Amino acid sequence: MTLDLEALLRIVGAMQLCVLFASALVPFQLNWKEELACLSKLHRQMYWVYAGYVVLSIVAFGLISLLNASQLAGGDFLARSFCLYAAIFWGLRLLLQAVFDVKEHLTKWWLKLGYHTLTVMFVCFTVIYAYSALRPN
C-alpha cells in the first residue's frame, strides 16, 4: 500500500499537533520558573511570548495540513509556498537538535525516547514538506 501526498500531509498535520504534548512538558522539565527567575520581568515575559509564537505556529502548521491537505497536495503556488516555509521551519528545528546540549536533561528513559522520537518527527516534517514544495509538476 502506498500513501499518497495528501495522506502524508494529513499524517504530518496530526503528528505536529502531537509535538505540542512534548512542548507542554518543556517548562516543567527544564524548570523554567526557577531557571528564569534571575532574568528581569521583561525578559521572562519575552521568553514566554516567543514560546507562545512557536506553539501557535505548530498549531497552524498542523491544522492547515489536516484541513487543507488536498489543496496542499495540489501544488499551486500558495500551497508550495506554505510547504516551503514549513520545510524551512522544521529543517531549522532539526538542525537545532544537533546544536542543543540536552544530555543533562535526558535523565529518564522516556525523556530519551521522546527526544529521539521528536528528531524522527522533525525529519519527516522536513522531508514531506520539502517534497511537497519542490516536487516536479
The radius of gyration computed from the alpha-carbon positions, rounded to a whole number of angstroms, is: 17 Å
Biggest sheet, open or closed, and with what strands and sense? none
Computed structural class: mainly alpha
Distance between the termini: 23 Å
Write down the overall mean pLDDT.
94
Multimeric state: single chain
H/E series: HHHHHH
Give the uncertain stretches in residue-range form: none
Report the sheet-strand fraction. Answer: under 5%
Question: Number of helical runs?
Answer: 6
Strand runs, count: 0
- What's the number of structural domains? 1
Helix content: over 70%
Detail the topology: elements first, then pairings.
Elements: H1 5-29, H2 32-35, H3 41-67, H4 69-74, H5 77-99, H6 109-134
Helix pairs in contact: 1-3, 1-6, 5-6
Report on this model:
The structure is a single chain. By secondary structure, the chain is an all-alpha fold. The protein has one domain (5-134). The protein has helices at residues 5-29, 32-35, 41-67, 69-74, 77-99, 109-134. The chain is elongated and about 55 Å long. It starts with a helix and ends with a helix. Keywords: Membrane, Transmembrane, Transmembrane helix.
